[in-house]
């Protein structure tokens, strides 16, 4: 489960009229008796990697409400784990075909994959983002023949957080 910490400033003008704050999502509403510099609330037990919209309103002792302030966030936006079982399944003179499986941890946070490659011992690299598929794969074209390439497969989570990359090396064919 994830959590989100919300922090806000009092309304100006009108801070003296605030009795309490109402913090809510679509499913739940909480009254927060927050004053001074303690205007914060930690929302716990949220589904990981789920987009959330929070509404915060100030309320007077007579029940008058301010316009809601909306906060958009993602709960527990951690990077997913590493891809599993990466392998080069076909080698051509100018191409490499890659296949892998989704990560075993935090795969609910997975949004897409990043595939990067470069000639081994060189610095210039290229990357593409790969959409989610049941059986993820990518063919790299336009490579030099008889050349060793270093390929890094990374997972991308919500907010483009990168998981640790998994690296392979492979020679192209003649």
Automatic annotation (TrEMBL):
PROSITE patterns: FN3. It comes from the Eukaryota. CDD domains: FN3. Residues 1-76, 79-174 form the Fibronectin type-III domain. This is (California timema) hypothetical protein.
